[in-house]
């Protein structure tokens, strides 16, 4: 057990399982509050609290958002399409490796990071982010077979990836530094302003994607099936166009309302941010251990 002062707040860290066992019970009658981390004023200013499930400490809101994750992930057609998309993306990535040639040294960490980002983007939004293709074109001289439209698409993809990484890594500034430091200390103030501009850029891009998908769904005939991705699942949830077959949780009236754009944004960020590094690291660890223990290969 030890304590630390973060952003002007005293925090006690418990490292012994005996001390935290009672805090992790699922009962709603526990004496301990539903808190995963400190919700400082900096986190609120950064705009990453109160939505989704990762950064949500409100039990009611967390429960409401979690049900949509369960519905989207448990739909059979969604899982089937996810496997198909992954196979297609892997084949595309292999084709890029073949173009680079056998003498090119592959940075597996970077490739897997782009692969998982492209995959989770497709699963969550239903569209490719082209992050694999974008990374490939950073490794080879500018190709003449790409027209201006394709080059712009690659650049937009790269900007989006960098913006997402900046959003995640920039949270530490708003978590550790108090309001005075973020607003008045020269270097930190400039960094905070830059991070907020990046956040606004990323949020605007995602809100536009949500808006465009809503319009597509509204213009889709009722007799025409909708594609199965998380964004479509979120937008249609608890509406006449609901594509969710599997339902979980209570039948509380508060859980039966349609989800707002802000809540969709939080869930999409959770999916993309939480599913990129974890999946890419998993792939890299698997390859690493298979390389050191070839006897377990099938």
TrEMBL record:
TM ranges: none
GO molecular function: heme binding; iron ion binding; monooxygenase activity; oxidoreductase activity, acting on paired donors, with incorporation or reduction of molecular oxygen
Family matches, as InterPro entries: Cyt_P450 (IPR001128), Cytochrome_P450_monoxygenase (IPR050121)
Family as reported in the entry's similarity comment: Belongs to the cytochrome P450 family.
Name the UniProt record assigns to this protein: Cytochrome P450
Lineage per the UniProt record: Eukaryota, Fungi, Fungi incertae sedis, Mucoromycota, Glomeromycotina
């Amino acid at each position: 057990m030890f304590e630390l002062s973060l952003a002007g707040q005293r925090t006690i860290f418990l490292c012994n399982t005996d001390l935290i066992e009672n805090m992790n019970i699922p009962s709603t009658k526990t004496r301990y509050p539903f808190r995963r981390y400190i919700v400082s004023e900096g986190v609120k200013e950064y705009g990453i609290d109160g939505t989704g499930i990762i950064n949500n400490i409100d039990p009611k809101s967390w429960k409401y958002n979690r049900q949509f994750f369960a519905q989207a992930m448990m739909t059979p057609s969604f899982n089937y399409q996810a496997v198909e998309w992954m196979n297609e993306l892997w084949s595309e990535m292999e084709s890029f490796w073949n173009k680079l040639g056998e003498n090119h040294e592959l940075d597996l960490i970077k490739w897997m990071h782009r692969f998982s980002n492209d995959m989770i983007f497709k699963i969550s939004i239903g569209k490719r982010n082209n992050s694999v293709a974008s990374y490939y074109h950073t490794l080879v001289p500018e190709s003449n077979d790409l027209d201006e439209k394709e080059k712009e698409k690659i650049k937009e993809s790269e900007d989006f990836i960098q913006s997402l990484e900046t959003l995640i890594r920039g949270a530490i500034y708003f978590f550790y530094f108090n309001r005075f430091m973020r607003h008045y200390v020269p270097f930190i103030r400039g960094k905070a302003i830059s991070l907020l501009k990046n956040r606004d850029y990323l949020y605007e891009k995602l809100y536009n994607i949500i808006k465009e998908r809503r319009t597509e769904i509204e213009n889709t005939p009722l007799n025409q099936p909708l594609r199965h991705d998380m964004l479509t699942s979120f937008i249609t949830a608890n509406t006449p166009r609901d594509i969710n077959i599997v339902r979980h949780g209570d039948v509380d009236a508060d859980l039966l309302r349609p989800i707002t754009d802000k809540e969709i944004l939080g869930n999409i960020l959770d999916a993309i941010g939480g599913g990129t590094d974890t999946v890419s690291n998993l792939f890299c660890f698997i390859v690493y251990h298979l390389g050191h223990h070839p006897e377990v290969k099938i």
